[in-house]
Amino acid sequence: MKSSLKRPSEEECDLSGFQLFKKLKEQEFIHLNYDKTCSLYKKGSIIYREGSRLTGFYCVTRGILKIYKTGIDGKEQIIRFAKKGEIVAYRSLLSQELACTTAKVIEEAVLCHIPYQTLLFLIQNNWEFSHHMLQIVCKELREANDYITDIAQKTVRERLAEVLILLKESFDLDTTNTLQISLTREELANIVGTATESVIRLLSEFKQDKMIELQGRKIKLLDVNALTKVANL
Description:
Distance between the termini: 39 Å
Helix content: 40-55%
Number of helices: 8
């Protein structure tokens, strides 16, 4: 569902900062810009749903998306978050399969849609672009393997500490050492792969141990070294 409040600015539609497109020739970049469609999406908007047929991939130029799968019982399992400079929906597009995840906006976003035929053109005509795309796919596969290992071998306490560290690395901290992403307790549980009640209890324990400070949905990291030790990183 697209927002009708306003159109994205020219700056918000600029793809020149994306690492993926750095090796494109001038004509290829012109082709990319001609074919793209940029839109503003409000918080809560669903960009695509699991099982849907994709017509292209998306470049995030503003905001944050959560990418998740839905289990048999309807419970979400958050796979990752996508922020400015990242792309989503490319893997199912490359394999010509139905979307294997759902993408939802959790912070008002601007996305540029790149049609499948444009992606195909760039892959066939620029080996450096193809190589970079392959690197992105391999990185996602490595992260998936790491996640499977964590689920199998780490306790919920260790996984929650690791998630907090990963959120710090992905979104950084503000001047007060607070994570620059606001998540519900349920969303945190859906990343860790546990019950919401367990996350609430463990956050309270982390707070008592003076590793974090809670301010509503905001989480302030007081002792990153201690969290890293708990996470067994």
